[in-house]
Amino acid sequence: MSPLTNILLVDDRAEDRTALEAVLTPLGQNLILADSGADALRQLLKTDFAVILLDVQMPLMDGFETARMIRARERSQSVPLIFITGNAMTSNDCFTGYGTGAVDYLLKPVSPDILRWKVQVFVDLHRLRADREAQNHSLALANQALAEAVLGRDRALQERAQLATELSRRNRRSPVCAGCQKIRDAQGQWLSIERHLAAQSLAPAGLSLCPECTPECPPEASPLAAVAPAA
Question: Which of 37, 85, 139, 187 has the fewest CB atoms found within 10 Å of its own CB?
Fold first, then answer.
């Protein structure tokens, strides 16, 4: 289930905010109400919106000034703005409104069906953009994981090749395959590095004495006595 999309309704008249809320509630989205331009700016500091419905005639900070402040902030400069006004629009009003970044103008009383349709369009666009960003993020993570896996594989292959070369250097009679790095043992069998090392570890070790142990070890206790042939 998709998360709810935020819609900001800005109007200084409580009855008009209530009317807008009633019209847009059937869309099933998260409606946030602001009673002034300053209140709208505070909401924008903590929430991202798919669309903002903005009343033009408001005291202290009207809709046009509020729109300019919204556009001045990087986080909200691309949020669609729909102006709603109770006065007949003049050409100058239209020029001012669209100049502040508005995408549409609606006259009060607003047709409920038209308002819902217009808002739904921006809700759908916002969801599509969010889905695309999520997909891009997932793709970036997948690419990073793939790159790390390839790097790890290449490192393991390099270490394997170095080990095979070192083993071959130590025993010139054990050539290494240039393709798979298998090692040919003394019996002519091609073994993996792991099997070759295991075979080497199981080979019987020759017994001897170091210089420090030779003077202290009596002949009968010498490990060489156990393997020396009978006289």
Answer: 187
Beta bridge partners of 6: 30
Contact by Cβ (8 Å): 41, 35: no
Question: Do residues 103 and 118 make contact, with C-beta atoms less than 8 angstroms apart?
Answer: no
CA distance 119 to 27: 9
Question: How many beta carbons lie within 10 A of that of residue 123, not counting itself?
Answer: 21
Highest mean pLDDT among 54-68, 125-139, 181-195: 54-68
The confidence band for 231, taking pLDDT boundaries of 50, 70 and 90, is very low
DSSP reduced 3-state for 57: coil
How is domain 6-110 classified at the architecture level of CATH?
A: 3-Layer(aba) Sandwich (3.40)
What residues have CB less than 8 Å from 94, skipping those under 6 apart? 105
Determine how many CB atoms are found less than 10 A away from the CB of residue 5. Answer: 23
Plot region of 144 (φ>0 → left; ψ -120 to 50 → alpha; else → beta)? alpha
Task: Measure the CA–CA gap between 89 and 116, rounded to whole angstroms.
Answer: 21
Enumerate the domain spans of the chain: 6-110
Total length of the chain: 231
Average pLDDT over residues 160-172: 69
Mean of all residue pLDDT scores within the chain:
79
The model's pLDDT over 203-212, given as tens digits with 9 standing for 90+, comes to 554 445 566 6
How far apart, in whole angstroms, are the C-alpha atoms of residue 214 and residue 209?
6
Q: Which is higher by pLDDT, 123 or 193?
A: 123
Q: Is the pTM of this model over 0.85?
A: no
Burial of residue 127, with CB atoms counted within 10 A of its CB: 0-12 exposed, 13-18 middle, 19 or more buried: middle
